[in-house]
C-alpha cells in the first residue's frame, strides 16, 4: 500500500473499497464532473481513517451523491442546492 498526506498511520496497509457517486447529465453536472476529476487527481477525493484498529479508505471532505434518491438526508437527490454546494467546496 502507498500512503499519502493525511494517512493516520503512514506505512501501514489499508483496505480499499468500491465508491460510486451520481451527477445529473446536464451542463452543470458535466462541469462538476470536470472539477471532481481534478480534485481526484490531486488526491482530495478520499482519505484514510481508522475503524476498529483497521485502516480504510473513505470519502474525503468533498460531498458526493451516492444515491439517486432519498434526498439530502441520504446523500441522494432531489437536492436543489447540491451542485452549487459541491462547486463551492471544489
From TrEMBL:
Pathway: Protein modification; protein ubiquitination. Pfam families: DTC (PF18102). It catalyses: S-ubiquitinyl-[E2 ubiquitin-conjugating enzyme]-L-cysteine + [acceptor protein]-L-lysine = [E2 ubiquitin-conjugating enzyme]-L-cysteine + N(6)-ubiquitinyl-[acceptor protein]-L-lysine. Keywords: Cytoplasm, Ligase, Metal-binding, Transferase, Zinc, Zinc-finger. It is an enzyme of class 2 (transferase). InterPro entries: Deltex_C, Deltex_C_sf, Deltex_fam. One of its GO terms (molecular function) is zinc ion binding. One of its GO terms (biological process) is protein ubiquitination. GO terms for cellular component: cytoplasm. It is found in: Cytoplasm. Signal peptide: none annotated. The keyword Ligase applies. Belongs to the Deltex family. Its EC number is 2.3.2.27. Coiled coil: none annotated. This is E3 ubiquitin-protein ligase. Its main location: cytoplasm. Residues 6-87 form the Deltex C-terminal domain.
Amino acid at each position: 500500500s502507498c500512503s499519502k498526506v493525511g494517512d493516520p498511520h503512514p506505512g501501514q496497509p489499508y483496505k480499499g473499497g468500491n465508491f460510486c457517486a451520481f451527477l445529473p447529465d446536464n451542463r452543470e453536472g458535466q462541469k462538476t464532473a470536470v472539477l471532481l476529476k481534478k480534485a481526484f487527481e490531486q488526491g482530495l477525493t478520499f482519505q484514510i481513517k481508522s475503524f476498529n484498529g483497521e485502516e480504510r479508505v473513505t470519502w474525503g471532505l468533498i460531498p458526493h451523491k451516492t444515491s439517486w434518491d432519498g434526498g439530502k438526508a441520504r446523500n441522494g437527490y432531489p437536492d436543489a442546492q447540491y451542485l452549487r454546494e459541491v462547486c463551492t467546496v471544489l
